[in-house]
Amino acid sequence: METIMSGSEVPDGYVRDYLTGKVVEDSETEEARQVLGKRLAEEYRYDNQSAGIDVTVSGLDEEIDIVLYEDEGNRTPQIVIVTSVGDRKDGEERIKSALENTPANLGVWFNGEDRICLHQSDAGIVEQIPDIPKSGETLDEIGVYKYEDLVPAPDLQNIFDVIYYHLYSNSDISRAERLGPEMIRLLFCKLHDEKTNEVCQFVARVDENSDDVAERIKKLFEEVKESYPDAFNSDERLVLDSDSIEYVVGELQRIGLTKTDRDAVGDAFEVFIGPSLRGDKGQFFTPQNLVDMTVEIIDPDPTDEVLDPACGSGRFLISSLEKMRQKVQTDGGEFQQDLSTFSAAEDETEKETIEEPTFTQTIDYSDESGPSSNIYGIDKDFDMAKISKAYMAIAGNGSSHIVCESSLDLPKSWSQQAKDILTQKGDLRKFDIILTNPPFGSNIPVKSKEVLEEYDLGYKWNYIKKRSQWEKTKQVLDGQAPQVLFIERCLDMLRPGGRMGIVLPDGILGNQTNGHIRQYMMENAHIVAVIDTPIETFLPSTSTKTSVVVLQKKGEGVEPPENVFMAIAEECGHDRRGNPIPEDDFPQIIEEYKEFQNQ
Q: Residues in domain DNA methylase adenine-specific (predicted)?
């Protein structure tokens, strides 16, 4: 591939090489090279002084895509790398050919979805190894790491993509939906290792076989089960074959999940859990930019108790935690809570602890977990609840407040753990803030009469034309869409004056037959804001048109807003196929809402 000299401008059809800074012609193969080049630069610490691209080698018909040298002064090839769009067998043969024709004893093949690392001994024997050395590291030092040696992942989602495609094609688990739970177990092992061991155990060294690696990871998982009994059953075990476990460890051992951007971790989790969600349960991941917009509008304080009753992978919870931590950091690790703003309907026992004339309370959140103890989550899907727990394990110590239950079921049917967390004296716990994107769809109705009769919106309503209003009848419906019942359940779990941000299908807000739902919302809450989102928001998963509705629960002393904020987002940062685009109206809506509030 012809290389153009480096310059300030990159012509159309070309890209700048991540390792060397040279400008090269773009192609599908080039995309794979740049993905790997970014990892080599940021994770393995190679630079343009120790790397060459498109290197001609005597005896080979093709150029070697990347050659890594020992240092700037020693131009003897140490590692040869081939990127191609072929299959694993073809890649392995190409690397072996490159090793035979160069002094290098290490080779890598990468096609954007899978990776092979090979070592050629002095005797000419070629064997697969779990990883290659970073710059300045020897072969024997691979896998000999302390926590301080780990680095943030430059592109965690790509690493997870590579692991996913490798496992799907090569492991003894061929069903996509079974890979998710297994990967969650391994991620917990990785997180547990980072949090508890100074000398890393989640490693794969060159001098050990895959069975040795797998045995050590399985011991880690036994520790995980003891540390997270609410996340794993005592009889759970790792079922991946040893070679696959070694592969996963080799891909992850250099990076620190706890050092990596938390949004990236959430994206990566969804690489594995996504294939098991096909929309048949009305579950769709909420785009991060929509989550962040909703959280910014709700604006949680560190003292607020926040709930997502359909938490999925935990994005609303993590974004809320980050917002709360920002406020803590602004106040140097302390947050001043103005107790004089408590609603008149607030718990009297809480008020009795305030000694006059004190009107503020200082809350110290200087520890690592911060306000994560105020974060609560519910999800009826066992694996999704696990993901949320894992996500919270990275962000703080709030995983114990995430339970696997159906938020719409009667609390008496919940586990004792869920009752302890989510009820008070037998009644539903009242939260300051609820943020959620509930499952929606008419094809997944709640049909249990015992459940429906507990909800006002579980009954048939008739429109009384003379009074221009809807009236609830005594007839229980045969079924009700879950998003409708979630509105009522969320309002039930808010304290008077509490705020809620909920994603709802536009049919609830506009269809004539849903007038009783809108009436119910306005009778029980003040409408604070409505943000119309583009049809692409949840594509390619579903084309259902949605809006974000912000409500404040009514109560004594809770005044309605003078005006309701309304906005229309025309672009959401990705197209109908899910491909990123630069146009995104959600950040601008955040700014406009803040200006609206300050008027």
A: 261-598
Residues 6 or more apart in contact with residue 14 via CB below 8 angstroms: 4, 23, 24, 25, 26
Range of the domain at 42: 3-137
One domain, residues 308 and 266: no
Q: What's the total number of domains in the chain?
A: 3
* The Cα angle at residue 172 between residues 32 and 274, in degrees rounded to 5: 55
Closest by CA position to 116, among listed 104, 131, 126: 131
**368 within domain boundaries:** no
Per DSSP, which regions of 506-574 are E strands?
525-532, 546-553, 565-568, 572-574
Would 334 be classed as within a structural domain? no
Hey, what are 371's tokens? Answer: 């306000």
In a shared domain, residues 196 and 292: no
What is the DSSP code (8-state) at residue 550?
Answer: E
Percentage helix, strand, coil, to 5, in the chain? 40, 20, 40
Residue 414 lies in a domain: no
Q: Which residues pair with 436 in a beta bridge?
A: 502
Distance CA(419)–CA(39), nearest Å, equals 46
Q: pLDDT digit string (tens) for 345-364?
A: 334 333 333 333 333 333 44
Same-domain pairing of 257 and 198: yes
The model's pTM is 0.73
Do 186 and 95 share a domain, yes or no? no
Residue type, 503: V
- pLDDT digit string, tens, across residues 57-93: 888 888 899 999 976 666 789 999 999 877 888 889 9
**Which one, of 126, 138, 159, lies nearest residue 40 by Cα?**
159
What type of residue is 38? K
Going by pLDDT thresholds of 50, 70 and 90, the confidence category of residue 398 is low
pLDDT at 232: 80
Q: Based on the domain organization, do 172 and 78 belong to the same domain?
A: no
Residue 253 in domain = yes
Instruction: For residue 498, give the CATH number of its domain.
Output: 3.40.50.150
Summarised one tens digit per residue, pLDDT across range 178-225 is 787 888 889 889 988 998 999 999 999 999 999 999 999 999 999 998
**In this structure, are 455 and 578 located in the same domain?**
yes
**Start-end of H helices in 463-585:** 482-492, 506-510, 515-524
Model confidence pLDDT, tens digit, residues 421-457: 999 888 899 999 999 999 887 678 999 999 999 999 9
Tell me, yes or no, whether 185 and 267 share the same domain: yes
Distances in Å between the Cα of 548 and the Cα atoms of 378, 542, 568 are: 20, 16, 10
How far apart CA 430 and CA 345 sit, in angstroms, is 11
- The one-letter amino acid at 247: Y
